[in-house]
Amino acid sequence: MPPPVFRFAPSSNGFLHLGHAYSALLNFESARARGGRLLLRIEDIDATRCRAEFEAAIYEDLGWLGIAWETPVRRQSDHFADYRAALDRLAALGLLYPSFESRAEIAALVKAREADGVWPRDPDGVPLYPGAAKSLPDEERERRLRSGAPFALRLDMDAACRVAGDLAWTERGCGPDGETGDVVARPKAWGDVILARKDTPTSYHLSVVIDDALQGITDVVRGQDLFWSTAVHRLLQNILDLPRPVYRHHDLICDGAGKKLSKSSEATGLRELRARGMTAEEVRRLIGLP
Ligand code: GLU
User: Fold this and answer.
1) Which CATH class is domain 1-78+254-290?
2) Does the beta carbon of 205 sit less than 6 angstroms from any atom of ligand 1?
3) Pocket of ligand 1 contains residue 43 by CB under 6 Å
């Protein structure tokens, strides 16, 4: 049996905090306990927010925690061609369409729909795409693309679900309501998700699925905030013929007010804690690790 392969996949859009430390240490220790490997991936597709300075800080903070990972590190912005190839496959299956509305136009459409009743939201609480770009006449779609109008490439969720059929994933951790074991994937809850934009030729959902496959990841250990996203990941894995890792979603480290930590919560940033004299051992104890 080849050894299991784990990964820690932070975004380089800020400094790491206690929540990242928890996730990284769980990955590191699970890999060690099972004779496996730990890979690191820098998720930096958002060129407006990700910075080399944050990436350097990630290496420093993980090293300080005593975590060791294999090199080379996979940096997503070096691999846009891989994501492009996956988009081409989805397009060839007729599963993508461009939508041209701005954020403000989408917000106005949602408001109009909500005036008529409840408009569904995705598991993160974001309203589903309310536009009609899927049924735009071909010539009009071509005209807009030729004009250079900005667009987002969306997955035709109904069509994708017809291709994939029923899906489930193996959960070794649990979801927010204790879901565990074989969990039924419900990708339709996300609507026609964006898989790429004109200027960023990928998205979180697409790149995470491609990279987990290319890196040979067998075990995805990550925060429970991504539990329901796994449905979209299973769908894309199925359509793109990619292997399915096993998932373990772990509980989130929260602040004193019970809210999920964010990269701007300075009080729990690893650099701040280190500057205040805290040791890596004390960080472990703080987040409840033995
Ligand atoms: N890059 C994501 C984050 O920092 C994690 C992605 C994943 O583990 O699937 O939240």
Assistant:
1) alpha beta
2) no
3) yes
